[in-house]
Each structure stands twice: as structure tokens, then as C-alpha cells.
Amino acid sequence: MVSFAHRTVKGATLLLAVALLLSSGLAPLAGANTKGAQLEQIVADIDLLQQQLKDRIDQAGMLHAALAEQRTTLNAEIQVLLRSLKIKELRQTNDHPRLRHNLELLRTIHTYMDELEAKQVLYRTGRDRLSYLRQLARDDIRMIRTVSDLKIDALTTQISMVINRYLPEAHTIQIDPQKVSLLPIESVWQRVKENR
Predict the structure, then answer these.
(1) Phi-psi region of 176 (alpha: psi -120 to 50; beta: other; left: phi over 0)
(2) Fewest beta carbons within 10 Å, which of 29, 157, 179, 187?
(3) Do residues 148 and 110 lie in contact, with contact meaning Cβ atoms separated by under 8 Å?
């Protein structure tokens, strides 16, 4: 056996280091990690927005309830005025500023209550859509990880095959004399003549 270990150890060590780096998944996963990180940030943004929409739904509900109380109070006062003034038609309210004012206030209250109800529907719809999109993003994150894991497994297998093939040669150059066929003497003579 001929040994040239001192020359090949550095090269084999470099090959092994590169193989280990690749098997760790650092190089091929850079893009996957970036996409995964982007999706994680999107999920965090969705969570924040969903919480904000929930807060707006609660706030709209409180405002709606407060307006409903005012509506009840104004309705009661308007009913008292209508009975006491014996008013049967809207045009008759023009002659009674307090009644007209209460009707205008009630008009504003109803308008805002309707708007608040529409906003609550909008916010709930938004939360439902965000929940759906959040689930899609979470699924994509899992897929990225799964695909990356599959790539890592395939790459690890390839690297293991290469390592297994070259690792015995990494520490020492191995030449088995029994498997070596000598060159024909004529070839040697030709090289000598050519000074090679």
C-alpha cells in the first residue's frame, strides 16, 4: 500500500465540511426560510388585524347600545309629545320645534346605529376572511417546512452516498496492488524516449 495521507487530508476535510454544511440544510433552505419567515410575519400581521377588528366590533357594539338607550329615551319623549299635542301627521311637527328637534336627533341616531351595524358586519366578514387566509398561510408554512424537509432528506441521502464513497479515501490513499495491472513495457519505453 502507498500512503499519501498528508496531501489529501486537507482536501478530504474540505469535502467533508462542505458535505456537512449542505446536509445541515443551511444553503438550500435560505429561500425556504425567507418565504417561511415572510409567511410567519403575515400570520402575525393577520393576528394583529383580527384583534383590532374584534376591538372595533366590541366598540361598535358599545356605541350601538348607547345609541339604543338614547333612542329609547327620545322615542318615549316623542310619544308623550305626540299624545299631548294630538299630532297625527309628520307635517304637523313643523309647528313644534322641540318635537322636530327630537325627530332630527332620532334620525341621526338611527342613521348611526345602521352604520354601526354595517361596520360590525364588515368587521366580522373581515375577520372571517382573515381567518381563512391565516389558515392558508399556516398551511403554506407547513408545506414549506415539509418540502424543505423532503429536500433536506434527499440532499442528505445524496451527501451520505458521496461521503460513503469518498470517506475511506479521505484519510489515506489506498491502492490495492492485487487489483493493479502493470502497463505494457512498450508504453514505458515510449515514455522514456519522449522524456515524460
Answers:
(1) beta
(2) 179
(3) no
